[in-house]
Amino acid sequence: xxxxxxxxxTKETTNAQQSSEVKPEETSAMTEAIDELLLPEDISxxxxxxxxxxxxxxxxxxxxxDTHLRLMAEFDNYRKRTLREKAEMIKSAGESLIINxxxxxxxxxxxxxxxxxxxxxxxxxxxxxxxxxKFVAFLKQxxxxxxxxxxxxxxxxxxxxxxxxxxxxxxxxxxxxxxIQKGYMMRDKVIRYAKVVVGE
Length: 200
Hints:
- The protein contains four helices and six strands; from the N terminus they run ααααββββββ.
- It is of the alpha+beta class and 200 residues long.
- It is elongated.
- It has two domains: 54-142, Alpha-Beta Complex (Hemagglutinin Ectodomain, Chain B), CATH 3.90.20.20; 145-200, Nucleotide Exchange Factor Grpe, Chain A, domain 2 (Roll).
- A hairpin with a 2-residue loop joins strand 4 (184-186) and strand 5.
- It has helices at residues 8-20, 24-37, 40-117, 121-141, and strands at 144-146, 159-165, 176-181, 184-186, 189-192, 194-199.
- A three-stranded antiparallel beta sheet has the order 1-4-5. A three-stranded mixed beta sheet has the order 2-6-3, with no helix packed on it.
- The N and C termini lie far apart (140 Å).
- Helix 3 (40-117) runs antiparallel to helix 4.
């Protein structure tokens, strides 16, 4: 008798169906696992944990926000205080300068009173010289010094040429021949350029 040949494709399909079929004991185990995952107790615990974490994060946020606002307020107060102190320093610096000038004004007033009735020109000249020396000393104390001009090389950083004239000698070309108005420096800064005549 002829034996029936099995179709290999049909055999494979049957094996696949058998392997994909779920056994009843496996089904009950899966259901139990799903039930365990979806227990209301677990959901409420997870919600409680989330709520607790949210509260912790909210507290941290509130603390950081409060710290930030305090720092901003402190910085604003610091800025206002330093501006006020700077304004007071400028005001008091000007005040001390004027106070130091007052004795020179007193000397000038005395000199003017003396000049009304003075007959001795030499005494007047000496009095004016003393006032001038005092004033120059006061300027030096405050860092103000005259700019050297005569016979120095012309330098636009310190000098302002009012005019040029032919140099009397070859060595005086490009040098300051005469000073029309003194220049002054306050420490390292020119506060008034010297007006000079330059030889060419």
